[in-house]
């Protein structure tokens, strides 16, 4: 589990560094855009892996249909707060959009959402999960 937490923290660090750039600097270099996209993908996949492990080990829940459902089930089972869980569902949907329908991705919107409250919700997810593993 510690390895997954480190993955979460590393991905979050990249999101934080990328979104700390001014909007002009962010948009002026395609590498920034791809870094943000990839960091979001990696964060969601590591978070889903952690969530799936929690559901399987603690609750013997095996019937899961996609990343968003993992976070919904964590909320239903009382392992994540509603606020963090709904934010993670949104991140999982964003991950799916980036991976499967990249031509529809609005990179400027992702940048602003990450700066606005995405980073804070991701940090809270890490805290809540860490509290489940004292």
Q: Mind telling me the CATH class?
A: Mainly Alpha
Largest sheet: none
Give helix and strand order, one letter per element, not per position: HHHHHH
Give the full name of the CATH homologous superfamily. bsu32300-like
* Named CATH architecture: Up-down Bundle
Shape: globular
Helix count equals: 6
Task: Give a quick set of tags describing it.
mainly alpha; 6 helices; 134 residues; single chain; Four Helix Bundle (Hemerythrin (Met), subunit A)
Could you explain how this protein is built, in words?
The chain is mainly alpha-helical and 134 residues long. It has one domain: Four Helix Bundle (Hemerythrin (Met), subunit A), CATH 1.20.120. The radius of gyration is 15 Å and the shape is globular. It has helices at residues 2-19, 23-28, 30-59, 67-76, 82-100, 107-132. The protein contains six helices and no strands.
Topology overview:
Layout: H1 2-19, H2 23-28, H3 30-59, H4 67-76, H5 82-100, H6 107-132
Helix pairs in contact: 1-3, 1-6, 3-4, 3-5, 3-6, 4-5, 5-6
Could you give a short description of this structure?
By secondary structure, this protein is mainly α. 81% of the residues lie in helices and 0% in strands.
């Amino acid at each position: 589990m510690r390895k997954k937490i480190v993955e979460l923290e590393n991905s979050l660090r990249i999101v934080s560094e990328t979104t700390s750039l001014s909007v002009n600097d962010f948009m002026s270099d395609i590498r920034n855009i791809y870094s943000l996209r990839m960091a979001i993908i990696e964060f969601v996949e590591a978070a889903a892996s952690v969530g799936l492990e929690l559901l399987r080990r603690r609750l013997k829940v095996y019937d899961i249909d996609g990343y968003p459902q993992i976070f919904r089930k964590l909320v239903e089972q009382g392992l994540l707060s509603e606020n963090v869980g709904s934010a993670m569902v949104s991140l999982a949907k964003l991950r799916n959009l980036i991976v499967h329908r990249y031509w529809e991705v609005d990179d400027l919107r992702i940048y602003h959402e990450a700066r606005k409250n995405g980073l804070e919700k991701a940090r809270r997810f890490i805290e809540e999960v860490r509290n489940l593993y004292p």
